């Protein structure tokens, strides 16, 4: 089968690999229908994910059809359409039992698919702990609608959940890339008083204004003064930092009012400065990523109910055989790309 493979730092290539087989009783084999390219894939390509194993198939955001299951799998059957969770987790350890599945202590726990074990930019993927890693897609939900449920939408959902958003809050979201927009959608479900989105790319700002006219938009140069002017207590009540750019961590805590919650979703390339003397007395609460991806059922139910729709994010669809060109497009943000759906069924 065709599989997009991490060869070494800087190089991914479409290679021919044997179709994966079940290894553990809890495994499922999934025939991938749609896969997507995520910024985290680019982090692997650029060598900033040290635990990524050369030789693995990349891709951790996908939907497909169950082909076969091991004897220990309870929740899915061959033929089921499923969303694949970015995280692998056992469901039984201390962290899993508390919902902190990102820190599952199983040796293959956490972000394994497309990083430490073969992922889903391929025709088939083996999913360990399939009872936790796969969620049946409701009949009325299409593959395109479900494509992001296991990764970027899960991230936005988790971020909105832990940020403790209330009806009186002004919420500032830094970054309107794909994950920023998913975060925005999930923040809107909490119905805060006001949402401000800060983004420096004019095309992305335009996308937000077009699709979500109830949201205020601003660029990074004006965001501090703008947030202060559009909030009730001298700054945002809740800040979600999803940009991960040079200055955005600083903006996140500066734009927050005293006693605010600042949730850091972004994955930075470099260490960030936490200048405690400057923020002394501001009494901020910081929460940090990555996602605990255990809300897929709720997310798919919200999609089925028409309350979440990420299909506008899919700006391009390409067959798996053209994935290298799709990476190039995505990485260099050409042609107004937001997300690419990779059709693996017509490899
Ligand atoms: Zn991702
Ligand atoms: Zn666990």
TrEMBL record:
TM helices/strands, residue ranges: none
Presence of keyword Zinc: yes
Key words, A-Z: Metal-binding, Oxidoreductase, Zinc
Cofactors required: Zn(2+)
PROSITE patterns named in the record: ADH_ZINC (PS00059)
MF GO annotations: oxidoreductase activity; zinc ion binding
SUPFAM superfamilies reported in the protein's UniProt record: GroES-like, NAD(P)-binding Rossmann-fold domains
PANTHER family per the UniProt record, alphabetical: NADP-DEPENDENT ISOPROPANOL DEHYDROGENASE, ZINC-TYPE ALCOHOL DEHYDROGENASE-LIKE
Family per similarity comment: Belongs to the zinc-containing alcohol dehydrogenase family.
Protein's UniProt name: Alcohol dehydrogenase
